[in-house]
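Proteins fold reproducibly. Next comes a concrete instance:

***
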Amino acid sequence: MMMDNPTLHHPQIVQLTTTNPQNINNIQQQQQPNIRPPGEMENFLTIRLLMQGKEVGSIIGKRGDNIKAIREESGARINISDGTTPERIVTMVGTIDTLSKAFDMICQKFEDDLKQTCTTIPPITLRLVVPASQCGSIIGKGGAKIKEIRETTGASVQVASEMLPTSTERAVTISGKLESIESCFRQICQIMLESPPKGETVPYRPKMMISPVHAPIIFANGQAYQVQGQFAIPLPPNELNAYASLPQLGPGVGMPAAPLMPNGLPANRAQLQSQREITIANDLIGCIIGRGGQKISEIRQASGANIKIADLDEGSQDRHVTISGTPEQIQLAEFLIHSRIASEIGGILITH
């Protein structure tokens, strides 16, 4: 009778002796390869910053170079909410050290921006979005803790008395010189790590601040679109004709004076043709084209414009994109292209 070969059913056997303890450690590591060292996950923290679109654009940088450098050099995981709202949430995940490094780099970028526009550098101000249940720990009994933070760091710290709309979070505003707010941020992170949120947290999500009635209207390919954030919403002809009687929709948003054709396109603009050329970084061109050309086809169909993407010139990092059509078609096509890019570089979570 043939006996089974034990090597087919068992892992490699290593002889263990009291004089070879390293082998014991090796076996334990092989048996538990995916278990993190004790306490490592407990040291991870999530920090949310509330920023204006211009501030987000500064830390993203041209072609996403700045945010890529911050992610790589700090080791923090950073995600930026989409660009459909005036305010955006920057979410950072990591240890206190990695978060502090990322925060320091963001503050340094803001200070560099201020140096280019101001002779006297004003205080750097950032807003943290903190669960209300943790704000009490930041304030401390009788305000003792927040007073200590102010005195030891020299930074100004303000905790909002009211929760942010439709959430259980408050804004914590820190302001001061570079070194002061960096130290202040680290102290707040330590408090949040030691005092986790209690109960369920309803996160704050920024919403559109522009009323749809005051949003711009674009005419393209026989269709009127109302611009809401990064989206162009088709308008029914009857709704558009109701707007046509108004002198303007809002400050700086004028309506066309010419009569509308049945399809909603101004009659005197229907036959005008023009051309516009824009430049897109080659590493972002893929998000515009999409898999199998799906995205570029959608943009062509929605806008009615003719869009041609030139081959990459030798030694260049940019691609030339030519958009042809009526002024309205070109405007909508360019809007959709830039919205697609903003969504791609602003909303991707890059992990390490």
